[in-house]
């Protein structure tokens, strides 16, 4: 009996019923005086009650079995074939710009920058020198169109002037190009003139040194520079329009210098195009850009210093300048060696302002040869 496949509860009821039935049969065949009649009556009542309970149990069992079969019929295919009942969600479409996965590139760039922002990969003059060297002799359209101008703001003692002549001057075949060299510090400006003549053998027909500062307003302003022991040579002097270049510069005092905006300075020369605008003003690069807004349509490429001194100099943020340039047709990159970091549009990350040090940025026009050269990889 116990080998029969049956619910435990049902087995118990059936076993009790059998036992009661056997006992009743036994009592029935006994002599009448062997068992009181009321006992037999109670046993018969218990048997009837047990039979009713067994019937109800069997009925419940059938209902449960029918419900189980119905559930299996409707849900089993979904459980066995998840791809039908629970289709796997598809990844959202990838957003790409210039054939670059925006989200992946942004994460890759910002993560690398957080780890390397204060190393020679992005910090110091090493990345900038590597940048200039990598494009030496390879600048697209170096002569611009019509009467062209190369503008170097913050020329210092002239370490870059030979490069300008070799890549954008007459040596490159650019016969109608003038190269403007802005250096307001009296000592470094004087050494610039000496270097141009003796070291680089350059005349002043193509190169036009200007002892004046450039900003977003014209007039006269104090120009501060250091006069401490480190400044015994002009090449070691650090200077700017604000007291932002260390204690020596702040304590050194300043001299009055002429200040111009490029928008007011350039019209007298009838400039048609500006293949290169380079800015290095120790914390005031943004104000220089704001002062050349009307001539930006003539500019092809911009190299500017993106420096932590912006926070105490002009008070501008890199994010604001990047957006301002983008609204005027330029997309900015942070110069690294060997990596360039996209800063524009959806590639921007606040970390580039949070961890701003002594670094350099470039801005190019989308679709230009120069832009295509620096935007090949993320």
Automatic annotation (TrEMBL):
Gene3D superfamilies linked: Vaccinia Virus protein VP39
InterPro entries, per database record: FkbM_mtfrase, SAM-dependent_MTase, SAM-dependent_MTases_sf
Domain of life: Eukaryota
Pfam family, one: Methyltransf_21
TM region positions: 12-29
Domain Methyltransferase FkbM: 152-331
Coiled-coil intervals: 40-67
Secretion signal span: none
Alphabetized UniProt keyword annotations: Coiled coil, Membrane, Transmembrane, Transmembrane helix
UniProt-listed NCBIfam families: fkbM_fam
Protein's name in the database: Methyltransferase FkbM domain-containing protein
Organism: Eutreptiella gymnastica
């Amino acid at each position: 009996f116990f080998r029969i496949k049956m619910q435990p509860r049902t087995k118990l009821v059936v076993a009790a019923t059998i036992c009661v039935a056997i006992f009743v049969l036994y009592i029935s065949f006994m002599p009448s005086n062997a068992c009181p009649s009321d006992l037999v009556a109670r046993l018969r009542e218990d048997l009837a009650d047990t039979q009713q309970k067994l019937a109800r149990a069997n009925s419940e069992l059938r209902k449960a079995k029918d419900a189980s079969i119905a559930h299996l019929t409707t849900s089993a295919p979904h459980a066995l074939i998840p791809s039908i009942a629970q289709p796997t969600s598809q990844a959202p479409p990838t957003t790409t710009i210039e054939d670059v996965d925006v989200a992946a590139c942004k994460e890759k760039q910002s993560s690398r920058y957080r780890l390397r922002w204060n190393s020679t990969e992005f910090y110091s003059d090493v990345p900038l020198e590597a940048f200039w060297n990598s494009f030496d002799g390879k600048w697209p359209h170096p002569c611009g169109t019509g009467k062209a101008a190369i503008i170097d703001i913050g020329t210092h003692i002239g370490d870059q002037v030979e490069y300008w002549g070799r890549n954008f001057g007459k040596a490159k075949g650019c016969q109608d190009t003038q190269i403007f060299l802005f250096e307001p510090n009296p000592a470094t400006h004087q050494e610039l003139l000496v270097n141009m003549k003796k070291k680089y053998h350059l005349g002043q027909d193509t190169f036009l040194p200007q002892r004046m500062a450039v900003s977003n307003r014209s007039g006269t302003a104090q120009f501060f520079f250091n006069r401490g022991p480190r400044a015994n040579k002009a090449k070691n002097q650090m200077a700017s329009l604000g007291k932002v270049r260390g204690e020596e510069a702040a304590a050194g005092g300043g001299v009055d210098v002429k200040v111009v905006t490029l928008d007011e300075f350039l019209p007298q020369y009838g400039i048609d195009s500006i293949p290169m605008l380079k800015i290095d003003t120790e914390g005031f690069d943004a104000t220089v850009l704001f002062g050349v807004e009307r001539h930006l349509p003539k500019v092809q490429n911009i190299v500017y210093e993106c420096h932590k001194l912006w926070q105490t100099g002009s008070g501008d943020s890199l994010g604001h300048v990047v957006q301002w340039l983008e609204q005027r047709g330029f997309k900015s990159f942070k110069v690294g060696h060997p990596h360039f970091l996209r800063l524009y549009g959806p590639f921007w990350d606040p970390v580039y302002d949070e961890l701003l040090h002594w670094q350099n940025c470039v801005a190019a026009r989308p679709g230009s040869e120069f832009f295509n050269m620096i935007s090949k990889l993320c």
